[in-house]
Amino acid sequence: MVDTIYALATPQGRAGVAVVRISGPDAFMSLHSLCNDIRIKPRKTILCDLYTQEGTHLDRALVLPFKGPHSFTGEDVVELHLHGSIAVIQKALEVLSRIANFRQALPGEFTRRAFLNEKLDLAEIEGLADLIEAETEAQRVQALKVLSGKLGERAQEWRSMIIKAMALIEVTIDFADEEVPTDVSKDVLSILTNIISDLDVESTGISVAERIRVGFEVAIVGKPNVGKSTLLNALAGREAAITSEQAGTTRDIIEVRMDLDGLPVTMLDTAGLRETSNLIETKGIHRAIERANSSDLVIVLTDDGEGLPEIKNPNILTFISKCDDGNMKNGLSAVTGFGIDKMIDLIKNKLGDNVQNQGIATRFRHKEAIDRSINKLKTAKKFVADGPAFYDLAAEELRQTAYTLDELFGKVDVEKILDEIFSSFCLGK
User: What pTM does this model have?
Assistant: First the structure.
């Protein structure tokens, strides 16, 4: 028998309202044990008094029932909208724990049941996880795009095109001893070329999507005492980095996450670049160079307008620091604020250009499946071009491609990643 599960669906701690979610075959039965003479109306909010098994008044709450399969999990679901005190929440959970066949949900178990009951596919669930974690506007938009099922829709379109190509090939194979009215190779090659083109775009855009999920990296580099830490503190609005007139104060990389007009950005304060005999400082300088060269964007602070030959990153913005009087075109002052708004706009524009290349797929799991599909489609194209004698091999490659695309939305071979995905959810999701 399937257990009925329950959990707090809102954050722990004191709040105006707390939501306890219940899902399973006995969800509605729990209402009858908590409320006297309640008449359940699915999708209708009910105001009622809740009582313990001993008849003690627990709380006055709004109750919202959902009859399966028309619910988030596909099962009978009940939401208890309680007053959000710690005492009320604890007592409500205690009362539910004493009902037979009731247990507290595991992390992500509500969403897992939604997947098993085909309410959400795997890509949509990943979008849901990203939406819950979203901190910026770009992350919210991206997560909603995935949650809406657009990746699954595109995968289905690609799959349908592959099936069409397979059908054309199978006709030639099945009627090899008869006259086939037309040569199908041209049509098949056209279909496969279009799919490969679409998949290439998605594969390329995944690195951008991943950056939106985890944040772009912007490294601040320059010689010692050029104002890197002071700039970071000005951007962060707090003393995130120690500042000093002494050269070599910053030896390790200091990271500060921030929201730049909807874009998630991690600003990096790095060690000042110079020749030094100090082994610890030297290691910090090497780390600074490596991190800057792998960052999405580098802010070079200089006092003479010269660049830094150590920095090989092609995405660089150069500013002349400590322009407190504000009389230089590319000047910047973390003390007076001169040039900072301009710098932020330039950063947003640079990173925003990258965002335009974002596709629907967002994770490297998606990239692996897409890249394998591309390779199989290219192999199929070669077999088709080699002539009818190789059509059976082409058809097999296409069958494997369809199977691989199914992995995107969880139709096959997903058990190994389910635990990892759902473990990232809170108990009430």
Answer: 0.69
